[in-house]
């Protein structure tokens, strides 16, 4: 086992790296793309079967989800090894994940915008089927000045904490970055808890007219994004604690921070358009 430039690898691997005349990473053959495709196929078919009450649908759906989650874990594990231990993620290679993260966030903006647009469309021109008024007649709404107002500044505050973590990483202050990520995740968990309280106290359900459908889809998908971002930040916190993230190599954290800023800014839109204006 040879050691050179802080990287641990075999002599054959070093010969391959040193003979490479470009700064790009040509990945080794991997079984994870095909396994991920099979897992997604099983999840989709199983979901359709389960929704139509076919026998075995729930089993196929569960197996597909387990297979998909396992593929995600081992694939990301390999990416972390390539970047952290093998040093394949040069500056040129890091551009790909950065651009991919930006495009993914843009697609998520469009995804959530569709639900806000549906709510605005239904409230600006309420049909006769719902009484020509918004909220529809007989539908109870949450008071925006209680839990929704209390929950709204929490996510922007967590965005400030994740920015603190980013500056700490750039300054080489590892412990401070860990503390900042712990603060970010703690605020995220508080926000998710308040979201659960909102749903528990909500006087309507997702089945109550177009109001319930748009309200729970928009706020629910945003809450789901908060949960995904929280898991993303927890992984970054663990990696920071283990010393994986450095001043020049922290693309995974940057992607998590960008995603989290998207999540905390989006929180302002449902409060104004759905909780407050949409509930007047």
Automatic annotation (TrEMBL):
**Residue stretches spanning the membrane:** 58-76, 96-118, 177-195, 215-238, 258-278
Catalytic activities: 4 Fe(II)-[cytochrome c] + O2 + 8 H(+)(in) = 4 Fe(III)-[cytochrome c] + 2 H2O + 4 H(+)(out)
GO MF terms held by the record? cytochrome-c oxidase activity
Q: Which GO terms describe its biological process?
A: mitochondrial electron transport, cytochrome c to oxygen
How this chain sits in the membrane, per its record, is: Multi-pass membrane protein
Q: Which Pfam families match?
A: COX3
Q: Which InterPro entries match?
A: Cyt_c/ubiquinol_Oxase_su3, Cyt_c_oxase_su3_dom, Cyt_c_oxidase-like_su3, Cyt_c_oxidase_su3-like_sf, Cyt_c_oxidase_su3_a-hlx
Q: Name one GO cellular component term.
A: mitochondrial inner membrane
- Output the PROSITE patterns linked to this UniProt entry: COX3
Question: In what residue span(s) does the Heme-copper oxidase subunit III family profile domain sit?
Answer: 20-279
Which family does the entry's similarity section mention?
Belongs to the cytochrome c oxidase subunit 3 family.
Identification of the protein by name: Cytochrome c oxidase subunit 3
